[in-house]
Specification:
This protein is an alpha/beta fold and about 325 residues long. About 40% of the residues lie in helices and about 20% in strands. The mean pLDDT is about 95.
Length: about 325
């Protein structure tokens, strides 16, 4: 079954805008689906990847009011690729600013990978604003997970790793993250696109079991590599185990944790650990699925979950 056959049909946004959020940043937001529908916030990954109209196709447009926004420096937000005044607390505040602008009291929050990180951090800061959490491809921002970004590539995709490492002089290779940050954030006129392309290939080409994704446009590769390297260098602005320890505060908020068994970027163990700390959360490990939401088994699991939540406000047994 193809993506086109299973996902809801493509729809255009019915409203959009730019919202100034401070520090010289303006975030782009948009709404699609039904203005009277159940509100859902869809958070993109990266950080720095930007949102896509494809994400709203997981939600019945007759039943959901679908809100998306490009996080600071990403997508259509400005300035593009800007890492200054761009921290996790800033993104949490931006979500609240968008919610207040749109007059939404509570919403289902959905995110995968970094989007799941941000969803958890937002929910722990503002649990009263969340009607539920749909979390995919769990990433909690730990040092071990960031290390795996490189080590997992070295072990399982050595050709991508070799291409990435070749961007650096021999003396820089002992600290690939540090070397990447120094180059990508330098703003000294050097050409960082070859490194940005190699960084994003290290991520995008490992995301699916069903063939590598096409290469990203240079503008997207630039923003993704810069912002991701910045967040990784700051350990995503999270204390060790902060999101695990804070999960107890989410008791009573329905949650489904969905993770691909063959996810090469985010290991299933992390999803299992989160489920153990989040009272009442359901865990679904999806066989024959990788990191992306668009691998067919993962796509099916997410569609079942969004339909179940619209029907009952919970994630029932059919989802897990």
């Amino acid at each position: 079954m193809t993506v086109e056959q299973e996902l809801y049909p493509p729809i255009a946004a019915y409203r959009h805008g730019q919202l100034a959020v401070g520090g010289g940043h303006a975030v782009y937001w948009e709404e699609a689906g039904s203005p009277a529908g159940l509100p859902v916030l869809v958070l993109h990954g990266g950080p720095g990847a930007g949102s896509s109209p494809q994400w709203r196709r997981f939600f019945d447009p007759a039943r959901y009011r679908i809100v998306q926004f490009d996080q600071r420096g990403s997508g259509q937000s400005t300035p593009a690729g800007e890492w200054r005044h761009n921290r996790l607390p800033d993104l949490i505040a931006d979500i609240e600013a968008v919610r207040a602008l749109l007059g939404i009291e509570r919403w289902l929050v959905h995110g995968g990978s970094w989007g799941a990180t941000l969803a958890l951090a937002y929910a722990q800061a503002h649990p009263q604003r969340c009607s539920g959490l749909l979390l995919r491809a769990i990433f909690l921002g730990s040092a071990a997970e960031i290390d795996w970004f490189f080590e997992g590539a070295r072990r399982y995709h050595p050709e991508l790793y070799a291409a990435f490492v070749s961007c650096f002089a021999a003396h820089e290779r002992a600290d690939l993250l540090g070397a990447s940050v120094r180059a990508l954030l330098a703003d000294d006129g050097r050409d960082i696109l070859p490194l940005a392309r190699a960084w994003t290939a290290l991520e995008c080409e490992r995301a699916s079991l069903y063939g590598p994704a096409p290469a990203l446009p240079d503008s997207l590769a630039f923003a993704l590599a810069r912002i991701e390297a910045w967040y990784f260098s700051q350990r995503c602005f999270l204390a060790p185990d902060a999101l695990l320890q804070g999960a107890a505060r989410l008791r009573g908020i329905p949650a489904l944790i969905v993770h691909g068994r063959q996810d090469m970027l985010c290991q299933p163990l992390v999803a299992f650990q989160l489920a153990g700390h989040y009272p009442g959360a359901r865990l679904r490990i999806v066989e024959m699925a990788g990191h992306t939401a668009f691998d067919p088994p993962m796509r099916t699991a997410l569609l079942r979950a969004t339909d179940a939540f619209w029907r009952s406000g919970h994630f029932d047994e059919a989802c897990a």
